[in-house]
Design a protein that fits this description.
There is one protein chain. The chain is mostly helical. About 75% of the residues lie in helices and about 0% in strands. It is built from twelve helices and no strands. The two termini are about 30 Å apart. The longest helix has 27 residues. It has one domain. Helix 8 packs antiparallel against helix 9.
Length: about 260
């Protein structure tokens, strides 16, 4: 893999991790569309570490406050946030271990990805149009943590989108768009960290090349940019443009690959 190819994959990871368009779908499809050698799921997950650093840097003050409140005033809504984020991460961790083989094989089939892109676009659309989106992060409770955590499990299927599924669940629960995006990004931290640690053992020394460093750097820088973009976007606008893109991409993928099955 060349440095340019790795950088492109890094940008796709940075965009797809935080925009509701599915980074795993783009990372799985790009090699097929451009004729590149697919580096494997472990490589894709390691690219996530670039976006992990981006979300930690962007929300560094939030995380400091979350840890401080968890220790100083654990019985308050602010003090419970750390434990609720941990609770919401459990379903994805269990599902990731249980379905790892499917994530490497069936789930990465282009037709499956195309169907997921289209189908979940309509589900997200319904959530985005739900009336009475009035809740903020202070309403986050154990029941919401479990439900959003379960929704996050769906993102094991490329095309669903981790940010898309968590934002969708939060919107269905009545959270404001900006609050839903912030919860989604905070929740990405433990999930990406856990997946990265799990898959790091599969990375071979010959994969740790300058190209790999380019991919990580591109994922980090683009991740920062797209976090800022979506946080700004969700304060005033809905998700329609991203959903149109998802449907268009999914339809194109189905048109290209359905006949080859």
């Amino acid at each position: 893999m060349t440095e340019v190819q790795a950088a492109i994959l890094g940008v796709l990871q940075g965009a797809g991790e935080f925009l509701p368009i599915s980074s795993s779908a783009h990372l799985a499809l790009a090699p097929k569309l451009f004729g590149w050698t697919y580096q494997g799921l472990a490589y894709d997950v390691m690219l996530h570490l670039g976006t992990l650093l981006a979300v930690i840097i962007y929300f560094r003050r939030d995380w400091l406050e979350i840890f401080r409140d968890a220790l100083a005033r654990p019985k308050t809504p602010e003090g419970r946030m750390l434990w609720l984020l941990a609770l919401a991460s459990v379903p994805a961790g269990v599902a990731g271990l249980a379905l790892n083989d499917l994530a490497e094989t069936l789930f990465r089939d282009p037709v499956w990805i195309g169907c997921n892109l289209v189908f979940f676009s309509f589900v997200i659309y319904l959530a985005d149009r739900r009336p009475a989106q009035t809740l903020d992060e202070g309403a986050f409770c154990w029941r919401h943590a479990v439900l959003i955590g379960l929704a996050q499990c769906i993102a094991l299927m490329p095309g669903a989108s981790r940010s898309g599924m968590t934002i969708m669940a939060a919107l269905f629960l009545g959270y404001r768009r900006a609050a839903a995006a912030r919860l989604s990004f905070l929740l990405s931290t433990p999930v990406i960290l856990g997946a990265g640690l799990l898959e790091a053992r599969k990375i071979t020394p010959d994969q740790l090349t300058p190209a790999f460093a380019w991919g990580l750097a591109a994922a980090f820088l683009s991740g920062l940019a797209f976090i800022w973009l979506l946080m700004s976007w969700m304060k005033k606008r809905n998700l329609t443009p991203f959903l149109i893109y998802r449907v268009a991409l999914g339809s194109a993928i189905l048109w290209m690959f359905w006949g080859s099955k």
